[in-house]
Amino acid sequence: MTLYGFRIPKFAALFFWIVVWEIVGQFELMLLFPPFTEVLAAMTDVVTTPSFVEAARITAYCYLVGLSLAVVAGIGLGLLMGLVPAADKLLNMWVNIFLSAPLSALVPVIMILFGMGEPTVIVTVFMFAVWIIALDTRAGVQHVSPSLKEMAFSFGASRVQRLKIVLLSALPEILAGIRLGVIRGVKGVVIGQLLVSIIGVGALFSLYSQNFLMGHFWALILILFAFALSLAELIGRLEQKVEYYAGARG
Amino acid sequence: MNAIAHTPASSAGTTATPVDLPIVKTEGIHKVYGGTVQALKDINLEFKRGEMTSLLGPSGCGKTTLLKIIAGLLKPTAGEVRVNGKPVTGPGPERAFVFQDFALMPWATVLRNAAFGLEQQGVARAEREERARHYVEEVGLAGFEDKYPHELSGGMRQRVGLARALAVDADVLLMDEPFSAVDEQTRRKFQEDLIRLREVENKTFIIVTHSIEEAVYLSDRIVLLSPRPGRVAQVLDPDINRTGDPDAIRRAPEYLDLTDDIWRGLREYVE
């Protein structure tokens, strides 16, 4: 965007809203919105507490385990659906249902099955992330150029080699799926902990809100937002590296 | 129907002598798609070693289907293909395919793409790269070995496809409309290079094309296919001297006459 001939960088919008937040906060209109500077001050407070370090550890652990499982299972499922029409017919409807279903409603069921601890959070992350990865992988596999598959076959490539070519060809779609899975996984890790509410950031959120520590509350939310965005950005960078695929595939 | 007589696979002067036995032979090839669409009907052809044959015909005549059956990528509904006397059951190292849309791996360099066939055959890295390098140079891409397909023009990509097919040292090169996805100037240059390449590489070429000029310009033999169902309408053996200036071919009376003749024959299939 340009204003009076000056180019305005994108993050200027962020600044604008922070300033609005600060002004609204300074008027002390609502208990819910402390000024932004107060949130920043609370942030250092939050980050240095041992309970935050523990919450961060649990969050990172559950997130990474859940997401890794989702990536492996999602790519496997997508590959199966993309390559075997019968499997696709059998699974496609269910994957789509799970993708659009309000999964938060399922968390209590997961809790009954897996208890009030980390396994529930891991399963929640998995359930949030896996379906979009599966569907994007499926789309990628189905769009692999038929002539590339024929090429591999005609030059005597083995089954394993041919599968590798399919996977590499579908990489742009798979990465797009992983990027969306990464973002959904953050939702999963937060919602899972909120509903379990006795471990990790879930415990912190209930602690802060029950004691009306709104500065701390918002600080924690900002940290989680930053976490999700930087992860998505990281995958986005990876995606750009394989963008040239699309041009060379035709 | 008077211009194209329904002649059998050989016309005057092309009967195989014991010296030049056919390298590829199709016997009674039928291909039916989905139980109803007859793509090919009773194709009996012989392709002689070291010759360049064009499969020419309007779209829908099954020429690509026939080429893929010879390649072993498709199974005929009936009939048999023999290469060097052995029946074809699938792709084999004595045949190499050049694809219409190049079919290059976008994540691999020119050199790795050209070495793909050798890699699948289990040739050691150093040796396969040396051989691939040789053919990359031979198709005129020296200096582009480490580039990726998206950095090349369409014509250059097809040269990589050609290098890959040459590198496996197959006896038969099967080319599916290799020049249809490149622009006219590139196509002409490519055709000239192909004539030169034929003199260096002693290979049998089977080219699918829908361009009459291209077929006449390049081939020792032209198989005309008629559509719905695909049948051999006529086999022609252009007698054109291709040794001198490549441009001279396009002005030769034989070239011009034959192009005209074929067009008159094919005209009735084009609505």
What report would you give on this structure?
- The complex is a heterodimer of chains A (250) and B (271).
- Helices cover 81% and strands 2% of the residues of chain A.
- With 250 residues, chain A is mainly α.
- Chain A has one domain (50-240): MetI-like fold (Orthogonal Bundle), CATH 1.10.3720.10.
- A two-stranded antiparallel ribbon of chain A has the order 1-2.
- Chain A is globular, with a radius of gyration of 22 Å.
- The two termini of chain A are 34 Å apart.
- Chain B is of the alpha/beta class.
- Helix content of chain B is 34%, strand content 24%.
- In chain B, the strands form two sheets. Chain B has a six-stranded mixed β-sheet, with helices on both faces.
- Chain B is globular.
- Chain B starts with 21 loop residues before the first strand and ends in a 5-residue tail after the last helix.
- The interface between A and B is medium-sized, with 24 and 27 residues.
Please provide the count of β strands of chain B. Answer: 10
Structural class given helices, strands, pairing of chain A?
mainly alpha
CATH superfamily of the largest domain in chain B: P-loop containing nucleotide triphosphate hydrolases
Strand content of chain B: 15-25%
Query: What is the H-and-E element order of chain B?
Result: EEEHEEEHHHHEHEHEEHH
Task: Detail the poorly predicted runs of chain B.
Answer: 1-18
Radius of gyration of chain B: 18 Å
CATH architecture label name of the largest domain in chain B = 3-Layer(aba) Sandwich
Number of separate structural domains of chain A: 1
The CATH class of chain A is: Mainly Alpha
Task: Determine the CATH topology of chain A.
Answer: MetI-like fold
The third-level CATH topology of the largest domain in chain B is: Rossmann fold
What class do helices, strands and sheet pairing of chain B give?
A: alpha/beta
Distance between the termini of chain B: 15 Å
CATH class wording of the largest domain in chain B: Alpha Beta
* Model regions low in confidence, pLDDT < 50 over at least 5 residues of chain A: none
Q: Share of helix among residues of chain B?
A: 25-40%
The tally of beta strands of chain A, per DSSP, is 2
Shape of chain B: globular
**Greatest chain-chain contact:** A-B, 24 and 27 residues
